[in-house]
């Protein structure tokens, strides 16, 4: 079974048109149209997945991750529109260089090959990942969480039809059986047939892939993300950016988990946060603080306090819900040291009116993205002007930060030798 899956994927990838072919924008356009036409079918499958997950007792935060909402449709539509327009530009000829004598070489784009994408229960990722991978000439094997099995099956039908519309091989996209762990273990060992693994999820998922496989990885890891509010920051702005970083989709990898606030700013910040938390969409906010800080929380925030106090076990924690940790620090040195010890290298932010503090923070904090005076959610390819992205990589090789369209290619050198030898004199 595994051999057949891998053989079909490799054959499809080899049979696919070359990079730059018109079939790829056509596929994106077809996927966009079919997604819109079958959105009710996709959300219906998602609702049934959610019903089953609720019966199993999954928490509400997890159920929200399973849900395909209209905002996902709108985001995907925008992403696919940009992808369709970006493909011809991205696939342009690479650099050309003059070598010894008449030798010339130029670089051409190639797909990465066969990609295994392993992710948790987010149906929107299935659509986005499949379209981006296939549109760049790669074959992709998609293994999502069992919680979205019915949604993924529906997505597979939409994508197969879109591939046929564009005249591309059906095997470019394969939705794997998410309930078969033996199949996943077998695939992770197939470095002879899979070129790249892209795991998207929490530390346990990434560690499973890393320890069980020798296949190169582009790691879309979780984010134990911090926002440092310097004493010069505006407290109202800090409060607003705190809520923006935490409450929309609190399980996202760019979600804010810990606020580090200068002791001098803490009182004004908490007062501003109490005011901002009166907004209707902030009702679920849960604040985890120390006993000392709890005694200083304004009355408007008292109802948001977590009875569990902040402790060492919270350092570096990704809550994946509406829980937010707040710690006071003595200044930028302590904040940077805390992030260095407990950050996950995903997204870190600083709020300050002091340019020297911002410069030092950016220089010393090692993360895929460092945000200065903005929401952590700005570490997002469309917000950055980069177009659609497959994941946000925390690795250091090939891709770091948003895994954009150009990161789904590798390259080859085409050398025009002009009949030149390298070491011997030509006859």
UniProtKB/TrEMBL annotation:
UniProt similarity note: Belongs to the gamma-glutamyl phosphate reductase family.
Job description of the protein: Catalyzes the NADPH-dependent reduction of L-glutamate 5-phosphate into L-glutamate 5-semialdehyde and phosphate. The product spontaneously undergoes cyclization to form 1-pyrroline-5-carboxylate.
GO-annotated cellular components: cytoplasm
EC number annotated for this UniProt entry: 1.2.1.41
SUPFAM superfamilies on file: ALDH-like
Designated name of the protein: Gamma-glutamyl phosphate reductase
Keywords, sorted A to Z: Amino-acid biosynthesis, Cytoplasm, NADP, Oxidoreductase, Proline biosynthesis
Chain's gene name: proA
PANTHER family: DELTA-1-PYRROLINE-5-CARBOXYLATE SYNTHASE (PTHR11063:SF8), GLUTAMATE SEMIALDEHYDE DEHYDROGENASE (PTHR11063)
Ranges where the Aldehyde dehydrogenase domain occurs: 94-283
Catalytic activity as recorded in UniProt: L-glutamate 5-semialdehyde + phosphate + NADP(+) = L-glutamyl 5-phosphate + NADPH + H(+)
Molecular-function GO terms, alphabetical: glutamate-5-semialdehyde dehydrogenase activity; NADP binding
Pathway info: Amino-acid biosynthesis; L-proline biosynthesis; L-glutamate 5-semialdehyde from L-glutamate: step 2/2
Gene Ontology biological process: L-proline biosynthetic process
Compartments, record wording: Cytoplasm
Pfam families tied to this protein: Aldedh (PF00171)
């Amino acid at each position: 079974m595994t051999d057949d899956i891998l053989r079909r994927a490799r054959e499809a990838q080899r049979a696919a048109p070359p990079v730059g072919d018109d079939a790829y924008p056509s596929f994106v356009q077809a996927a966009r149209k079919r997604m819109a036409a079958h959105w009710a079918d996709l959300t219906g499958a998602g609702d049934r997945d959610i019903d089953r997950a609720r019966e199993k007792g999954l928490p509400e935060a997890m159920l929200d991750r399973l849900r395909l909402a209209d905002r996902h449709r709108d985001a995907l539509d925008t992403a696919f529109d940009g992808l369709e327009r970006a493909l011809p530009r991205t696939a342009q000829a690479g650099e050309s260089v003059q070598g010894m004598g008449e030798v010339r070489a130029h670089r051409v784009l190639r797909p990465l090959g066969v990609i295994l994408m392993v992710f948790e229960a987010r149906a929107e990722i299935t659509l986005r990942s499949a379209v981006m991978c296939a549109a760049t000439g790669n074959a992709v094997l998609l293994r999502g969480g069992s919680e979205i099995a019915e949604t993924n099956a529906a997505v597979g039908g939409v994508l197969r039809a879109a591939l046929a519309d564009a005249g591309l091989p059906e095997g470019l996209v394969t939705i794997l059986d998410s309930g078969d762990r033996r199949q996943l273990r077998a695939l992770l060992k197939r470095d002879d047939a899979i070129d790249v693994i892209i795991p998207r999820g929490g530390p346990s998922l990434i560690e499973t892939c890393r320890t069980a496989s020798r296949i190169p990885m582009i790691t879309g890891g979780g984010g134990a993300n911090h926002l440092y509010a310097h004493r010069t920051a505006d407290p109202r702005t800090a409060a607003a950016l705190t809520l923006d970083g935490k409450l929309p989709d609190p399980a996202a990898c760019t979600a804010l988990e810990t606020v580090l606030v200068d002791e001098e700013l803490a009182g004004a910040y908490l007062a501003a946060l109490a005011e901002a938390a009166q907004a209707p969409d902030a009702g679920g906010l849960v604040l985890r603080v120390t006993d000392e800080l709890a005694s200083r929380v304004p009355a408007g925030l008292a109802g948001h306090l977590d009875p569990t106090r902040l402790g060492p076990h919270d350092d570096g924690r990704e809550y994946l819900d509406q829980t937010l940790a707040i710690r006071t620090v003595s200044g930028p040195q302590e904040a940077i040291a805390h992030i260095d010890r407990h950050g996950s290298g995903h997204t870190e932010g600083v709020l300050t009116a002091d340019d020297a503090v911002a410069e030092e923070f950016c220089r010393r904090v090692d993360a895929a993205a460092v945000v200065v005076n903005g929401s952590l959610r700005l570490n997002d390819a469309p917000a950055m002007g980069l177009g659609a992205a497959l994941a946000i990589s925390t690795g250091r090789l090939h891709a770091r930060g948003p895994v954009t369209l150009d990161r789904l290619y590798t390259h080859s050198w085409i050398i025009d030798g002009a009949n030149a030898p390298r070491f011997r004199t030509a006859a």
